[in-house]
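User:
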Amino acid sequence: MHQASIFCSILIAASATLHAADSPPLNPANQWAHWRGPLQTGASPNGTPPITWSESTNILWKLPLDGLGHSTPIIWGDKLFLTLAIPYGKQLPHAEGDGHQHADGAHDNLDPAQKQRFIILCINRLTGKPIWQKTLRDEQPHEGTHTTGSWASQSPVTDGQHLIVSFGSRGLYGLDLDGNLLWEKDLGNLYTRHGHGEGSSPALHANTVVVNWDHEQQSFVVALDKRTGKELWKVQRDENTSWSTPLIVKHDGAYQVIISATGRIRSYALDTGDLIWECGGLTRNVVASPVHSDGIVVLSNSYDAQVMIAITLAHAHGDISKNPDAIAWTLDRFTSYVPTPLIYGERIYFIRHLQAFLSCLNVKTGTPLFGPARLTGMNMIFASPIGANNHVYIADRSGLTTVIKHADTFTIVTQNQLDDSFTASPLVIGPTLYLRGAKNLYAIESPSSQGASHTP
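Assistant: Predicted structure:
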């Protein structure tokens, strides 16, 4: 796949600088450096995880977690990184006029009534043993989060040399992979719609970190130097709250940043912040992030209306809202709200809203292949599906993970129950599946694979 070669070349260049002096560079296709994996599509090109497990079967290790966090872990080499927010101390009052008390339409929110330690944790992915832990901020959140949310929902990102960690209103941080703090940046406070909390993760390419700062006050997108945190460019946006993560893609020899949001889908030049193209069509409360494969970008929303838009980058210039050449296909039924779609080969898989129904289309043409098919026994789905070894993995908030066949027809292969709740998306390295739950972090691997195929 064309996108695989592009993204792998990016990571090879980044990792070579770090490892040239002492060891060969790691294979980027075997890392999980971004919350959507090595291709930023949710697919693992080389993963071979098991398809069956339980609390007593195929558990390589299980690590209890303190605090709460819905961010998806990332992995580079043998290091797994995840963020946590751990409450402590006495109950505290809220300042008059704070975001939690007065967010327009606030409902079903958790009260930020204690201070929180905002932590990045590094774990040996083979053993489950902590390597280092660092508290990056220690304070009371200015705003609540939804009862299904957390104060550590942004996923970190790495290039094998720098680790970028975002706690949104609690700061953006650059570290090395040994936990040494290189810089920190305070972008202010986000005030989210309904006070429902934060979730957009940073994006990283070469030396540039990109952050989407869409909220109920002045929104913007900002690019920073990954080495110093210095601002490279900043563009104000006429947008309200979105929770989507920017997508950085290469097209026609240049890199662009694509952000999915309520008013417009927009693409910016990575080096300057100049607007390349824009498109309307989505509704409020954009959560799902853009996905890209072989020149096609797919964006989804399902809050006020159901909509999915596929854009052909070769024809994307200026306002493309009514450009039939730029819009490859659209869909107005069964589209995803919270989970980001999975692109796996020629297929795109997506959840209906956040319900237990799965659909599959041809990603290039939009031709329906199956669905919406009922994911029997599943509950509310926030985690994004992933693909590996010709299977698709879908985890829900009841602790159930359904494995289906990667095919044009819908076939449930197995269903696996654990004593936890999954909001973070699964991830895969080699023979190991990692599931970050509300209570535990699981490494799942069959005994026949243990001790083998772990070369990064």
